[in-house]
From TrEMBL:
Belongs to the SNF8 family. InterPro entries: ESCRT-2_cplx_Snf8 (IPR016689), Snf8/Vps36 (IPR040608), WH-like_DNA-bd_sf (IPR036388), WH_DNA-bd_sf (IPR036390). SUPFAM superfamilies: Winged helix' DNA-binding domain (SSF46785). It comes from the Eukaryota. GO terms for cellular component: ESCRT II complex. This is Vacuolar protein sorting-associated protein. GO terms for biological process: protein transport to vacuole involved in ubiquitin-dependent protein catabolic process via the multivesicular body sorting pathway.
């Protein structure tokens, strides 16, 4: 007759499992630390590369596009803010900000003749005329980077010359759930003070990216974001059709 393991045997088995679990956790931690160290090293090397080839990045459109692709692979966004370290290092934040303003101007100026739709190549030609530059100095990728921003899983076209920083993008991403946010939701999500939450929301409101709704019984102001709400509605409509 087969004997069942005693209490000592069960305790030994449990201790063995705990040891294996600890070993597994230590191995995972070591791997994570190594990956973080490698990523930090790569970012440092990327900064050195950017300093060395600063002029090429600014003047050569193909080189600039390849540099952006390298940055994306390590989670670096040189265009996150005009005031960021990368923007100061390369000066490309101002380049894309100015380009975005010029694109909006051209789209408004040509709306009467093209109905609000303009071919990307035609846009590039008009931009180069405006900037007194050769067509080869400006790529389609440059035009798209100047007006398209990523917010969570969405890509939005920016039609106002407004610099959106991480705070603004965070709120836009939060609003994707219901189309609106409240001050309390922002405070809870990002652990911000009331003053910071209101300041960022009021900036978005001032720039025309948000609308306010005070008609609720709980007395809480809703900040609605049409750019998020409309894109969600159109996606749903496309899915139904």
């Amino acid at each position: 007759m087969r004997r069942r393991p005693g209490i000592a045997g069960l305790q030994n088995a449990a201790a063995t499992r705990d040891q294996f679990r600890l070993v597994g956790e230590n191995v995972a931690k070591v791997r994570t630390d190594v990956m973080k160290e490698q990523l930090a090293t790569f970012r440092t090397q990327l900064e050195e590369f950017a300093r060395k080839h600063k002029n090429d990045i600014r003047k050569n459109p193909l080189f600039r596009q390849q540099f952006h692709e390298m940055c994306a692979k390590v989670g670096v966004d040189p265009l996150a803010s005009n005031k960021g370290a990368w923007a100061e290092l390369l000066g490309i934040g101002d380049f894309y900000y100015e380009l975005g303003v010029q694109i909006v101007d051209i789209c408004i100026a040509t709306r009467a003749t093209n109905g609000g739709l303009i071919d990307l190549l035609d846009l590039r030609k008009l931009l180069c005329q405006k900037r007194k530059a050769d067509l080869g100095s400006l790529t389609s990728d440059d035009c798209l980077r100047a007006i398209i921003i990523s917010v969570g899983k969405k890509k939005l076209v920016r039609s106002v010359p407004t610099e959106l920083n991480k705070d603004h993008n965070g709120i836009l991403e939060l609003a994707q759930a219901e189309g609106f946010v409240t001050v309390e939701q922002v405070e809870r999500k990002f652990s911000w003070s009331t003053g910071r939450a209101i300041d960022v929301l009021e900036t978005l409101l001032k720039e025309g990216l948000a609308m306010i709704d005070d008609g609720h019984r709980d007395g809480k102001r809703r900040y609605w974001f049409p750019c998020v709400t409309l894109s969600s509605d159109s996606t749903g409509a496309d899915a139904k059709s």
